[in-house]
Specification:
This protein is elongated. The protein is an all-alpha fold. It is built from 16 helices and no strands. The chain has 2 domains: 11-103, Fumarate Reductase Iron-sulfur Protein, Chain B, domain 2; 107-373, no CATH class.
């Protein structure tokens, strides 16, 4: 007689899920309504039903090796139709958060970004770093409060770019370490050979993500889809604005002998300013929609809220820095700019450990599923 398989549930994993938005997990009685109504679920071994079962039994290792949970875009079609109120969409979101915290490097940062007790320390680091850079740059001279407002007098553009470019390089390196472990785990659970090259799969995946094709297959939560698109293009438009602004200041400097730190700001009617302002408005509009829906939602986790609020502060303080300078309110302009730099630091430097990490891990999982199925976003299912 073949011995029955032994299932060893990870109790701590189940507790973690319940703490991070999956408190309804045990309500699921495997009716498969969620899998039937989901337009993104693959025909073979469909989610969310499979994920709900594995999560109920605390099978953290199997879920970590399954790319299927990253195919879910949390449109909530499944939660809307669930007869038991088990909210499968929220459960899958909690599983994803647990997984990227598990693979994050260093691991304690994943924990820090998920617990409010660490927030003062996470904010204190960029606050002190930027303050120290200010004192070094200014040499303790506060005469800028009595001069015409120029943010390059607060902190050199060159110093800021070195800080953020260096931070991005470090962030991508640390994210790469975690994603490498994640990729190896996906291969371990796949049980099938690749049917497509990595380059081809990556290209198809990027196109899919940029145009949000999967999001618009969701039927119930179209407002969230539009909001996500606004935030996506708003954020990357703002990043493009920052990069183009630096390039424009270098290329179109009227005085080649003028140091980079003293170059004049880009005028308000410049196309780069228009790009930045339109991107900022798009980001704020998208975040407003998401936040209003979150307030009305039954599930609100700390990790979601801190990410949304910090990103909103980035956009608001960006606008504030621009318009308060126009109003010639010197102290408030520099204070707003300082807060803006702290918020940008928080979003970019902590990206591999916050809600932002979903972008990295989802992209890798979608590339992987495309490679093993030769079809974007369609999983052949992990080995059971």
């Amino acid at each position: 007689m073949t011995p029955l398989p032994v299932i060893n549930p990870d109790i701590n994993f189940i507790k973690s899920l319940k703490k991070n938005g999956a408190d309804t997990l045990k309500k699921c009685f495997q009716c498969s309504t969620c899998s039937s109504v989901c337009n993104l679920s693959p025909s073979r071994k469909p989610f969310p039903r499979k994920v709900m079962l594995l999560a109920q039994w605390g099978q953290a290792d199997k879920l970590a090796s399954s790319p299927d949970i990253w195919l879910c875009h949390q449109c909530e079609d499944c939660s809307t139709h669930c007869p038991r109120g088990a909210r499968p969409g929220d459960v899958l979101a909690a599983v994803r958060s647990h997984i990227f915290r598990t693979f994050s490097y260093p691991s304690f940062m994943g924990k820090a970004l998920s617990q409010p007790g660490y927030l003062p320390l996470l904010l204190l680091f960029p606050m002190l770093l930027i303050a120290v850079l200010f004192f070094i740059y200014r040499g303790g001279n506060f005469s800028l409060l009595h001069e015409e407002i120029s943010y390059s007098k607060f902190l050199s553009h060159l110093w800021i770019n070195v800080m953020f470019i260096g931070g991005n390089i470090l962030m991508f390196f640390l994210a790469f370490l975690g994603l490498g472990k994640f990729w190896r785990k996906l291969k371990e659970g796949a049980g099938t050979d690749s049917k497509s090259s990595f380059v081809k799969a990556a290209l198809l995946t990027v196109i899919d993500i940029v145009f949000h094709k999967k999001f618009f297959k969701c039927k119930v939560n179209q407002g969230r889809n539009i909001a996500h698109l606004l935030i996506f293009f708003g954020f990357f438009g703002a990043m493009a604005t920052a990069g183009l602004a630096v390039l424009a200041m270098i290329l179109y400097n009227v005085d080649p002998n003028l140091p980079f730190s003293q170059m004049p700001p880009i005028p308000m009617n410049h196309p780069i300013k228009w790009l930045g302002n339109i991107s900022g408005l798009a980001g704020i509009a998208g975040l407003a929609i998401i936040i209003i829906r979150r307030i009305k939602s039954e599930t609100n986790t700390y990790g979601d809220w801190i990410f949304l609020l910090m990103l909103l502060l980035v956009f608001i303080t960006g606008f504030g820095s621009q318009f308060i300078r126009q109003a010639h309110l010197v102290l408030f302009a520099y204070l707003t700019y300082y807060i803006h730099l702290v918020c940008v630091f928080f979003i970019l430097w902590y990206a591999p450990y916050s809600k932002f990490a979903h972008m990295f891990y989802r992209t890798v999982a979608l590339i992987f599923t495309t490679m093993i199925s030769s079809e974007p976003g369609k999983s052949s299912g992990p080995r059971e």
